[in-house]
Amino acid sequence: MATKNTVILAAGKGTRMKSKLYKVLHRVCGRTMVDHVLTQVEQVKMDNIVTVVGHGADAVEKELGSRTKYAVQEEQLGTGHAVMQAEDILGNLDGITMVVSGDTPLFTAQTFDNLFEYHKSKKAAVTILTSHTDEPTGYGRIVRNSLGIVERIVEQKDASKEEQAITEINTGVYAFDNQALFSALHSINNENAQGEYYLTDVIEILKKQGKTIAAFQMDDFYESMGVNDRVALSKATKIMQRRINEAHMKDGVTIVDPDNTYIDVDIKIGADTVIEPGVQLKNHSVIGENCYLGAHSEIRNSTLHDNVTVTSSLIEDSEMFDGSDIGPNSHLRPESSIGKGVHLGNFVEVKKSTIEDNTKVGHLTYVGNAKLGKNINVGCGVVFVNYDGAKKHETVVGDDSFIGSNSNLIAPLNVADHSFIAAGSTINKDVERYDMAIARERQTNKPGYFKKLPYQKD
Ligand code: UD1
Ligand code: CA
Questions:
Q1: Which ligand is located closest to the Cα atom of residue 159?
Q2: Has 363 been annotated as catalytic?
Q3: Do 355 and 397 reside in the same domain of the chain?
Q4: Is the CB of 200 within 6 Å of ligand 1?
Q5: How far, in Å, CA of 241 to CA of 231, rounded?
Q6: Could you tell me if the CB of 323 is within 6 A of ligand 1?
Q7: Same domain, yes or no, for 139 and 13?
Q8: CATH code of residue 95
Q9: Region Linker: what ranges (predicted)?
Q10: Tell me, what's the pLDDT at 201?
Q11: Which helix (H) or strand (E) holds 64?
């Protein structure tokens, strides 16, 4: 049976990244580079996907889980040696094997599909995916003869002056006849500038065996970009970001300044939402329809339902329901749930709390470990005092209550519905329904005292 297989090369350390993190685990728009590659490969429907791991094998396996098989390359002796490690899994199969690198995050499933189709139509032993660039430095070059037929690939470090001038590059993606690939790999050596077993040498070997070598030229060089250092990482991120932002705009989202809007790959956004400059949407956030995300807001791993307004605020691991609003300069910390029509104004911090529909927390307030019912008014500068130095405690406030400004609610505390807390109170005893609680020093007025003050004015 003719099988369709892919080998993803992800064993290299990535020395040029100068990082403790393995190269293929660096992120582009929220997803690791190797995950980007695997996600696109998965869409082509393979019989086998084998990821070659070495440096950081455990971390890469943890990242990709059971979506791929693994082959371990103990020592990183080159890309040809890396593919060899997949021989135990793939060696006996008939069919086509695509090889891709884990450091080329921009490739699309469509390009892989096109490569397979082209390869089949050419009946070739190998089809190299190539592209053209005015800045080929660092890439392997495609050497063609006077008839334009591909002879071999020469690596940057082994290339002559003339070869370095070639602008057609090896993208590092190939479709091989599986049997031809593994038999040719047995003949490669490491006699080159880097002392490595190059996968690219397989081309010349197949050529010498009289087999057909094809090259499929893709139009978009940027899609084939390999990330070897941080400069390339930032370029790849820019390109990916543009793609993501354009897809959202085509789906009806207004992005005022797409060059300065940072949206991770897994984010969903409803139509008619408006996103101002500097906004960052991260992890697995979901944004509803007709929301307004004001400048420099950041939303991490959170869900916003429809018609939510966020003005220059930070939202983490939380949920905001229909018509609620927050900001400017406010912060939802993890595990907060904000009901429909809730208003959270400026300088409000909410942590691990539930606030039900139409409650208002207008200004300068900390709500921690609390459950607030519906239609509550929380005045300015209220502190939900949740921590006794050792443990966190909970405060519950019932529907339709009023919490006066500058109050401290010392948890554990239960404030019943329809109750009233007078401004400036420090409350540490439960409050019953329809009660007013007042806990502050009575005011004393001293008649005429102003005139006794040393700085008094007539
Ligand atoms: C490689 C190609 C080059 C091509 C470029 C495209 C070779 C010899 N060169 O160069 O022609 O233009 O990709 O981006 O193939 N890896 C292993 N084990 C190893 C060595 C590398 O798994 O022993 C993995 C790396 O993790 C990486 C991929 O193979 O994901 C490519 O290796 P890298 O060192 O980045 O090759 P380039 O120098 O970019
Ligand atoms: Ca590379």
A1: 1
A2: yes
A3: yes
A4: yes
A5: 15
A6: no
A7: yes
A8: 3.90.550.10
A9: 231-251
A10: 96
A11: helix 57-64
